[in-house]
Amino acid sequence: MVYASGIRLPCVPHLYKSSAPSGFNGDRRSTSLSFLLKKDSFSPSEKVLVPGSQSDDPSAVTDQLETPETVSEDIEVRNGIESLQMEDNENVEIEDHGPVTLQGKVSSEKSEVKREVGPRSIPPPGAGQNIYEIDPNLLGHRQHLDYRYGRYKQMCEDIDKYEGGLAAFSRGYEKFGFIRSDTGITYREWAPGAKSASLIGDFNNWNPNADIMTQNEFGVWEIFLPNNADGSPPIPHGSRVKIHMDTPSGIKDSIPAWIKFSVQAPGEIPYNGIYYDPPEEEKYVFQHPQPKKPKSLRIYEAHVGMSSTEPIINTYANFRDDVLPRIKRLGYNAVQIMAVQEHSYYASFGYHVTNFFAPSSRCGTPDDLKSLIDKAHELGLLVLMDIVHSHASNNVLDGLNMFDGTDGHYFHSGSRGYHWMWDSRLFNYGSWEVLRFLLSNARWWLEEYKFDGFRFDGVTSMMYTHHGLQVAFTGNYSEYFGFATDVDAVVYLMLVNDMIHGLYPEAVSIGEDVSGMPTFCIPVQDGGVGFDYRLQMAIADKWIELLKKRDEDWKMGAIVHTMTNRRWLEKCVAYAESHDQALVGDKTIAFWLMDKDMYDFMALDRPSTPRIDRGIALHKMIRLVTMGLGGEAYLNFMGNEFGHPEWIDFPRGDQRLPNGQFVPGNNFSYDKCRRRFDLGDADYLRYRGMQEFDRAMQHLEEKYG
């Protein structure tokens, strides 16, 4: 991201010069640079969270020597990668079977690990046959569907056998990245393409020869850093870190893939990974329980950075204090937050993720985000995260692309691993370690930050090898179940929904699918993909189609058909417009209806125009009809409830495309990258009436359903 001159970014932390000696003298506390965090982000009552300590003992890797009845007590290897069993101890029964010899090799002690039981348990795969009773038309594609479910069951069996179950497999963040223990810090990274690796950062004066990592035969690099002599951690909290690798593409310094925080220093282009482990008295502790899942969701879609009325990047703290009470007052019961995962390019709207486990540092620290979520829970609001597992930024400097110097590390190699429209990389969902990474990522946000669920972005792109591009879905079942289906991706979606609903029964899972994939919102045990809701994207398209027509060409029968045209037992989130329609190059419903009249005739002390009167009336009715008929949940993008004028335009400079076309920028202006909530609050403007109608509509649904 490029910072605009004169714009103050309140929560972007700064780097300062340490008073310690510049040379590395063996004491890791001597750093040339350190990361300074805000000290006033939390009230005294919000402090003190003591994490559970993790084992630091380097673990030996065993070969795959399991018999069908046994799995390793401590470590198993799948596709050559070590992993620790990290079950919830109170829910796991371990039976010792002693050593097992197989093909002349001796494994470590064996134990049988059963799936977790109790309230947080992942049910075993069912028969997957109920989908045929729900929709007999699926019988014509039974071969594909049974194959898909068979792949899912096989994957579950393999995860049970080699990893001790999905509950353990989805806790990769306790194995990879930086693991703090009583005696030091262990750092592990999967980078099979690297020829050598070392950990560098402020803590060792960026010396690539100071902390050399060792690689096992399966491509996992590891190093253990013991505590300093006085017991302090070897890497100070807030210091910058990277992994230095000799790769097939040359020498490169990368941000660790499992990094929990990364920051772009003012005046610098690349991001830096930050070792984030604040003192106990500065860690945020959650005060409020997570709300129960409501019968019907009314979702307020929001972007923290652009949520200020001023042309700045807003902070988690300001959103917590100013925007959350507004959402509650308007009558919504859930907030869906966009652009949470760190993304180097601000104008990507958060969809070109570079650091999957790190919250965006533009808006504050990880603890600031936790404070926001806790406040929402205090207000009774669910907090949904717009999570991106459909693709990743092609940024080689800051992200996963070419991480170990190879094209096919986390992604498919060649053209299959590149999304030509989004200019981004596509995950290889058939890779064991990619599954570990993504499943653990989903669980990390639920476990560490207490998110109440997800809106999975770009699911259509995941489920088909054509990514839904230049394809018109007509509803013919052969379009969904054939060679164009990426079964690996669908199996991943089944696994992640299995994990979410098994371990977090109150969590909500929403998928953005434009294709209308049958079984999308049917439980996994019944043979479905397992989402709770799909986004009913056809409704917004229908309204735009109608807004381009004459009034007399609006057909109520066609409107009602679009609103109610959804699959039996598969719930939908209805919306008249989302953030997509608000972006520059598109138009919101209010702008379609009232256009330039919005600039001159929205004040109550001057006459209206027929266009304004018609626009306000239809703006209200479109929302009422959509909420009443469109689905089992409702969504609105922030500001659209009062007909926010104009469009969203992120700060950007001039650009010349690969084809030579020149695209003018906006001089890195934030003027159109904010939300003018003051317009909806002004009692002298007609926006106020539109906002009050939306508020009354939300409270009507709350009371009567």
From TrEMBL:
InterPro entries in the record, alphabetically? Branching_enzy, GH, GH13_cat_dom, Glyco_hydro_13_N, Ig-like_fold, Ig_E-set
Bias (Basic and acidic residues)? 107-118
Question: Would the keyword Electron transport turn up in this protein's UniProt record?
Answer: no
Could you say which enzyme class this protein belongs to?
transferase
**Pfam families noted in UniProt:** Alpha-amylase, CBM_48
Catalytic reaction equation(s): Transfers a segment of a (1->4)-alpha-D-glucan chain to a primary hydroxy group in a similar glucan chain
Q: Which residues form a coiled coil?
A: none
Q: Which SMART domains match?
A: Aamy
Q: Name one GO molecular function term.
A: hydrolase activity, hydrolyzing O-glycosyl compounds
* Active site, per annotation: D457 (nucleophile), E512 (proton donor)
Write the record's keywords in alphabetical order, separated by commas: Glycosyltransferase, Transferase
Instruction: Tell me the GO BP annotations in alphabetical order.
Output: glycogen biosynthetic process
What's the protein name?
A: 1,4-alpha-glucan branching enzyme
